[in-house]
Design a protein that fits this description.
Blueprint: E1 2-8, E2 11-17, H1 22-54, H2 56-71, H3 80-102
Antiparallel strand pairs: 1-2
């Protein structure tokens, strides 16, 4: 009896193939082929998902969604306290930049 190890998914599959029964060998080979096909399909889908995730347009869309959700509530109404805080911070930064450039 020979032992067959094949990496599948997160672990390893250890199957035994009987050397005297060709029908059992064929069944194990068919099962292995099916498992490999399923694993290949899962890997392909994972690679496609990752490719989509890092695509610049997807990254930009996620960033815009985060920014929009920060400044609006669940109903789509503006969150005035956050908008006022952002504007005040921007004015403060611009004031500091103007003051430091004015000393040159």
């Amino acid at each position: 009896m020979s032992k067959l190890f094949v990496a599948v998914g997160k672990g390893a599959y250890a199957g035994h193939m009987a050397s005297n029964d060709s029908g059992e060998k064929q069944q194990n080979a068919d099962q292995l082929a099916q498992e490999l096909k399923e694993t290949r399909e899962r890997l392909t889908q994972t690679v496609n998902d990752l490719t989509d995730y890092v695509r610049p347009t997807s990254v930009a869309a996620r960033s815009l969604d985060k920014l929009t959700s920060f400044f609006t509530d669940a109903d789509g109404e503006p969150r005035t306290e956050r908008i006022a805080g952002a504007v005040a911070s921007l004015v403060g930064v611009l004031g500091i930049v103007k003051k430091t450039r004015g000393k040159d």
